[in-house]
Design brief:
GO terms for molecular function: actin filament binding; structural constituent of cytoskeleton. The chain is an alpha+beta fold. It folds into two domains: 115 residues, 2-Layer Sandwich (Yope Regulator, Chain: A), CATH 3.30.1460; 131 residues, Yope Regulator, Chain: A. Helix content is 38%, strand content 23%.
């Protein structure tokens, strides 16, 4: 299985070219990410050494409330982090990072690693705060993160037990529900392997509200089972254990949680593509067998039916 990298390759490539004086030029690059994030990389009109990286993240109010901008500034010391970000093509971005590539050339390796990860760093703040409160045993209200236009992540702390992340996922294609059910069963079976005994517990429910969300009033997803099934709603619950919440593992855990939805849909599309390839191969083999059965001699032969009638076969 492949986990998608936290760093954005487009931002990394553009930034790398701008650091090189031989390839440095005025640029304007628009792009996006799997989770609906939008970004614009644009050099300053009067100085091609100044590069602005503007990023729009859905659900920005929640991420900013829980210290997303502060974490970015801490991760990118010496660079200007502006929030709200620049307005480009009628879109006010969540934040804008400004870097002078000529002055910061000595820190090239660091910025090539950190700036392409800026979206993940910004989004991880809310997860890190939830983990910290849970490990300290502090009371924490459920946190609702609207990370996509129609979908949410809920962080729920069960004091003294586990921290649970619940994903509401809207499956547009009914086939995806079947594939997701089979795919996520592999995570349950992984717990049987002693080497993977520390893996988090995972549950998947389709057409039924996740048990962890029943008593939460702020839930925006439908509660009626008929509506949930008709619209294609599914819920994935991941229970994080103490081993995942250790101080040295919290950032990695946050990154994995942020990328989980993209990870799931990426593999669903890979599964469908693989099935289509196998189906085409099967059809090709059947066509070969049918073509091999054709009589290419051109001779006309007489055949008889069960009733005794005679006919000629070309």
């Amino acid at each position: 299985m492949i986990f998608l990298e936290a760093a954005n390759k487009i931002i990394q490539e553009v930034l790398s070219k701008q650091f090189d004086p031989a390839t440095r030029t005025g640029v304007r690059v628009n792009g996006g990410d799997f989770d609906g994030t939008k970004f614009v990389l644009e050099t300053d009109a009067g100085n091609k050494n100044i590069l602005n990286v503007s990023v729009y993240v859905h659900g920005e109010k929640v991420f900013t409330k829980y210290g997303g901008i502060e974490l970015l500034k801490k991760t990118l010391p010496g660079l200007t982090v502006q929030s709200p970000g620049l307005k480009v093509e009628d879109q006010v971005h969540t934040f804008t990072i400004t870097i002078d590539v000529e002055k910061e050339e000595k820190n090239k390796a660091k910025w090539l690693q950190e700036i392409p990860r800026c979206k993940t760093t910004y989004m991880s703040a809310v997860f890190l705060q939830a983990m910290e409160k849970h490990t300290k045993g502090e009371t924490m209200e459920p946190i609702q993160i609207p990370y996509r236009p129609d979908e949410n992540i809920y962080l729920i702390s069960y004091k003294g037990k586990s921290l649970v992340a619940v994903y509401s996922i809207l499956f547009r294609d009914p086939d995806d529900v079947v594939l997701a059910n089979g795919f996520l069963c592999e995570f349950k079976d992984a717990k049987k392997d002693r080497a993977l005994n520390a893996a988090p517990n995972m549950n998947f429910s389709q057409g039924q509200l996740a048990g962890e969300l029943v008593d939460i009033k702020s839930v925006t997803e439908p509660r009626d089972e008929r509506t949930l099934k008709k619209e294609g709603w599914g819920f994935v619950s991941i229970s994080l254990l103490d081993v995942h919440l250790k101080a040295d593992k919290q950032m990695n855990t946050a990154e994995l949680l942020i990328g989980f939805r993209s990870y799931l849909h990426y593999h669903l599309k890979c599964m469908k593509a693989y099935m289509h390839i196998r189906m085409r191969e099967r059809v090709d083999k059947l066509m070969l067998n049918l073509n091999a059965a054709k009589d290419l001699s051109g001779k006309k032969t007489e055949k008889k039916t069960m009733s005794g009638k005679t006919f000629k076969q070309n």
